[in-house]
Design brief:
The protein has 21 helices and 30 strands. Strand 22 and strand 23 form a beta hairpin. Helix 2 runs antiparallel to helix 21.
Length: 866
């Protein structure tokens, strides 16, 4: 940069002069700056609008499905006994509920002890032992606690809480109050001593519980009896008893798992059987209209999602399936592959005739040739001459093979290899349309063929087909993880039994198999229930020997098993000792954890809490009803459906009104973004007003915005056919107010007749609510299809292109590029301005230097004459 002297000799305002001289450059830079600022504001406007459109797009996604409108409301005849909420799957009607038993948490009230405060120690209570080891057992989980003579009541409370219990010591009543945190039998607890000192400490604390004291002076529920029962005459005898219990436990759990799996398969097979019979009936009906359609449909079903991109071709009585590949023939046509029964591959080429909008298919031949590729991966136009196994010649160039990577490298004059110039030799497979190939006929798109057959069904048959197919495929594709395939109740065995029954005597034979051949106990449901009950009995028996569960989970003969066995041996020996030596507090009271029990429509349900979720109902039991029943009444929540439609329209209206306002905005005329110098001449309020004028007009008459608006409006105005009758929003009293009656920029918004919150239409008849009450299914089907149409319309506008990103309705990529280009251009003009300023300042500097020298010379001459 030149030295900038500002008129020191000449007295000129150099800065102002230079600024004026480069003003044309500055004006051009400011033009691009203003354009970039305007583009940035436009990006911000689009981002804000796009966020709202995407929010609408996301929200209406769920409205495409019936579950969005299957809203239910429910009432209970006695709300002091239960509260009930209904989900979308809850059946309408009245149901009977009995609450036979409430779930309870295990609760212990300790005996009165002599601890005057929370700081009283075990020693002060008379405990003289060493380390007192305790075990807190809750369900399958056991935690250990160690106390000492110096442990305070606070320490005991802390340890019990750490073990997962709720515990408090009340110094006023001198008792411990302990409970499990959750209700139910599985969450109940016991506290026992792991050694003599532990049992002694429990007695000192007043929480040694052994059940109720009998008239004989013993206790009804000695907590050590369970382990002590495994005690033998010696350690070896005790180990034998333990391992015998492990074997029994494993057999019980294995049998329970097997019977549960069998029961589950039988219940699923019932649904499969009826669905299979239904599906076969549909196949037969198809064949009655067009022989062979059932075979084609079965093939297409097996293809499933792979139908897209697949072709089928009639081959005698069956079909060949051609799958689309990524391969092409030598002319660039896509290849489809078919593998025959001998595992041989066959290919056909799809040749598109764009003028006629048709595609022809030809057999292709497969051949292999040697390909030579240069370092850039391009195949050489001329085939090299093979000199020997390690040398190739291309013109006057010689290439030698490098054994380390198999490539041939150019040999330089000094005998070394040029690693930048190489040839790769490979075998290339090519596909060419056979010389005698003729257009193959009878080839169909698998997806089109499937759609054609499905569309030939009436609506009722199609609905039955969809449900039956889903059920059949789910069962046949399910896998047995417990049962072997040869088990009579495995998926494979039950599938074969049902299919054989249908082959023998059709639907009637299947129904007899499922319901029982004149004997109810033979039916699948009854067999399933019997197996479930047997499994439950086995599980209960296993629970009786639950103390060996951890040992049973170890691999026998492993070090872990040996260690667990020795640990259990110690516990059994300790329990045997404590069985008779442990003291129990007669005043301690224990309420056992209890499961809840209800009857819904005569069916019993149990659980460890008072909450149930059954067939779409969420039931919270509050109090027992005894043998009396309360009623639960469930019906369609018409107000909820109405609000769902209203909320959807409100969101749509907010967005379409904003779009309309942006599209119809007033022109900003010659308004342009302000430069810093221009802003210095204006107040903050004037600047804000100026910029708002421009920002409000940025999307005025924007073609992209207009296109999105049109797509959305077209979707909302579309009609939907339901049961042979066409419906539109106006069919349900929903319409716009029109240009004459609507407020400015709200002519595209929809209003519901009779909407009490809408001053424009509140006085009209509420056709929407009437339609929901009279025929909710039609309203729901209409809203599903309308939502689907709008979802698709917006989705099409949000697809990714070269100019825009996915889920974006405007050309964000293009704008980003333009913004970057503006930044680059502005920098270029800034450099031009800087260079020009340097040029002029350099000139003025030279002038100032010359004038300084002239003045000096004049002074010198003047001195000669003085």
């Amino acid at each position: 940069m030149a030295i900038r002297l500002s008129g020191m000799t000449s007295g000129l305002d150099t800065d102002s002069i230079v600024k004026a001289m480069v003003s044309s450059y500055t004006t051009k830079k400011e033009k691009y700056q203003k354009a970039q600022t305007k583009l940035e504001w436009t990006q911000d406007a689009w981002k804000s609008l796009n966020t709202k459109v995407y929010s609408l797009y996301s929200n209406i996604s769920n409205l495409r499905f019936s579950t969005a409108y299957n809203l239910k409301k429910t009432s209970v005849s006695d709300t002091t006994k239960a509260t009930v909420k209904a989900g979308s799957g809850a059946p309408s009607g009245t149901q009977s509920l009995k609450i036979k038993q409430m779930a309870k948490a295990g609760y212990m009230t300790g005996a009165e002890i002599k601890a005057d405060s929370e700081k009283t120690t075990l020693a002060q209570l008379g405990y003289t032992g060493g380390d007192a080891k305790l075990e807190v057992k809750m369900g399958d989980e056991t935690k250990s606690i160690t106390l000492s003579a110096s442990s305070t009541m606070n320490d005991v409370v802390k340890e019990l809480r750490n073990a997962g219990l709720d515990a408090n010591y009340d110094s006023s009543y001198k008792r411990f109050y302990i409970s499990s945190k959750k209700t139910g039998v599985a969450n109940d607890f016991t506290i026992t001593g792991s050694n003599i000192d532990g049992a002694s400490a429990l007695y000192s604390l007043g929480i040694a519980y052994g059940g109720e004291k009998t008239t004989a002076g013993t206790y009804s529920s000695n907590p050590y009896d369970e382990y002590a029962a495994l005690h033998g005459t010696s350690d070896d005898d005790t180990k034998a008893k333990i391992e015998e219990a492990v074997t029994s436990y494993n057999n019980l759990t294995t049998n329970a798992a097997k019977m549960n799996a069998q029961s589950k398969n039988l219940m699923n097979a019932v649904n499969y059987g009826y669905s299979y019979a239904t599906l076969q009936g549909i196949y037969e009906k198809l064949d009655a209209n067009n022989a062979g359609d059932s075979d084609k449909l079965k093939l297409l079903e097996k293809l499933g999602s792979s139908r897209d991109g697949a072709l089928i071709s009639k081959n005698g009585d069956s079909y060949d399936t051609y799958t689309k590949t990524t391969l092409t023939d030598t002319n660039g046509n896509t290849l489809y592959k078919y593998i025959d029964s001998d595992n041989n591959s066959h290919y056909i080429a799809a040749v598109a005739d764009k003028d006629k909008d048709t595609t022809s298919y030809y057999d292709v031949t497969e051949s292999t040739r040697t390909a030579y590729t240069d370092a850039d991966g391009k195949e050489l136009e001329a085939v090299p001459t093979v000199v020997d196994d390690t040398t190739l010649k291309v013109g006057d160039k010689t290439y030698k093979k490098d054994e380390t990577d198999g490539k041939y490298y150019l040999q330089k004059e000094d005998g070394t290899a040029d690693k930048t110039d190489s040839i790769t030799v490979s075998q290339k497979t090519e596909y060419t349309i056979a010389a005698d190939a003729v257009n193959k006929t009878g080839i169909e798109s698998a997806s089109v063929a499937y759609d054609t057959i499905i569309k030939s069904m009436d609506e009722k048959t199609k609905s039955s087909y969809d449900e039956a197919l889903a059920s059949v495929q789910a069962f046949e594709n399910s896998k047995d993880e417990v049962l072997g395939s040869d088990d009579k109740y495995s998926v494979a065995s039950l599938t074969k039994a049902i299919q054989n029954a249908y082959a023998g005597n059709g639907k009637e034979a299947v129904e007899q198999l499922l319901a029982g051949n004149g004997n109810e106990t033979d039916g699948f449901v009854n067999k399933a229930n019997a197996l479930e009950e047997a499994a439950e009995a086995n599980t209960k028996k296993a629970a009786d020997s639950n103390i060996v569960k951890e040992l049973a989970s170890k691999q026998k003969d492993s070090s872990e098993y040996t260690q667990a066995l020795n640990d259990l041996l110690d516990r059994v020996n300790t329990a045997y000792t404590l069985q008779n030596k442990a003291l129990f507090n007669s005043q301690v009271k224990k309420v056992a954890g209890q499961d809840s029990e209800i009857e819904l429509n005569g069916v019993k349900y149990t659980g460890d809490s008072n909450s149930y979720s059954i067939n779409g109902l969420t039931i919270e039991a509050l109090a027992e009803t005894g043998d009396s029943a309360i009623s639960i009444t469930t019906s369609t929540d018409t107000q909820g459906v109405y609000d769902k439609v209203k909320d959807f329209l409100t969101e749509y209206n907010n967005i379409i009104n904003e779009m309309t306002k942006l599209y119809n905005a007033d022109s900003a005329g010659s308004y342009e973004p302000l430069t810093d110098d221009e802003k210095d001449q204006m107040s903050d309020k004037e600047i804000e007003k100026w910029e708002t004028k421009i920002k409000d007009s940025l999307l005025r008459r924007d073609s992209t915005l207009g296109s999105v608006m049109t797509a959305m409006q077209t979707a909302m105005m579309s009609s939907v056919e339901i049961g042979g009758k066409k419906y539109s929003l106006s069919s349900f009293g929903i319409s716009t107010l029109g240009f004459l009656n609507a407020a400015e920029n709200e002519q595209n918004a929809y209003h519901i007749d009779g909407d009490e919150d809408d001053a424009n239409t509140s006085g009209k008849t509420d056709k929407l609510m009437a339609a929901i009450n009279d025929d909710p299914d039609t309203v729901m089907q209409f809203m599903q299809q309308l939502s689907t149409n709008l979802y698709s319309a917006i989705g099409d506008k949000m697809k990714s292109t070269d100019l825009s990103s996915a889920f974006t309705i405007y050309n964000d990529k293009q704008m980003k590029t333009e913004y970057t280009n503006y930044t680059k251009t502005i920098k270029e003009w800034e450099k031009k301005i800087s260079d020009r300023e340097d040029y002029y300042y350099n000139k003025f500097t030279q002038m100032e230097s010359a004038m300084t020298k002239l003045n000096s010379t004049q002074s010198s001459i003047s001195s000669y004459f003085s």
